[in-house]
Amino acid sequence: MTARPSEELIMSIVTPLQSGRLEEALGAARTVEAAYPDFPITQNLIGIILQVMGQLEDALEPFQRAVAQRPDYVEAQNNLGVLLHRMDRHTEAATHFLAAIDQRPDYAEALNNLALLMRDMKREADAMVLLSRAIDVSPGYTQALINKADLLEKLGRMDEAALCRQRARLAGPAAKFSP
């Protein structure tokens, strides 16, 4: 069993990250990483911080380590997919989104992110199916509703897009970061 840092140590990373204090969050994460090098949540958090800081190449290795340390860590698989998508490495991104979805078929965030990848690959029909699935498993998922409305508009289906936007407004603001 891998040694695990205390909840207090994890929160020493998450709290500044949620407040946008990225340098502080990264410093705390590096401290925790030094003491617990095989803890995948720390690697995932480092990847998130570096990605938010715009250091995409540097974010790659921590996400890859998190997934290697724990292949069933669906959040890390999803985050690695998001990063690879941003880097225009679409095939690799799809592999990680699909790995997350295979392990947790109701993982709405990964379904949404794979849909965005499909949209960018000009596979609008696949994107629509995935967005619908994301909304089916998480009916109040505001970002998926907005993304579906955007896609419907792109396809010229304005009435359906308006209904989707209405649902998004009723669902409330998009979710904040959670580790």
Task: Using brief descriptors, characterize the structure shown.
TPR repeat; Ycf3/AcsC/BcsC/TPR_MFPF; 179 residues; Serine Threonine Protein Phosphatase 5, Tetratricopeptide repeat; 2 domains; 10 helices; mainly alpha
Report on the architecture of this protein:
This protein has 179 residues and is an all-alpha fold. Helices cover 75% and strands 0% of the residues. Helix 3 runs parallel beside helix 5, helix 6 (90-103) packs antiparallel against helix 7 (108-120) and helix 9 (142-154) runs antiparallel to helix 10. The model has no long low-confidence stretch (mean pLDDT 94). It is built from ten helices and no strands. The longest helix is centred in the N-terminal third of the chain and has 14 residues, at 22-35. The protein is elongated, with a radius of gyration of 17 Å. It folds into two domains: 1-76, Tetratricopeptide repeat domain (Serine Threonine Protein Phosphatase 5, Tetratricopeptide repeat), CATH 1.25.40; 105-173, Alpha Horseshoe (Serine Threonine Protein Phosphatase 5, Tetratricopeptide repeat).
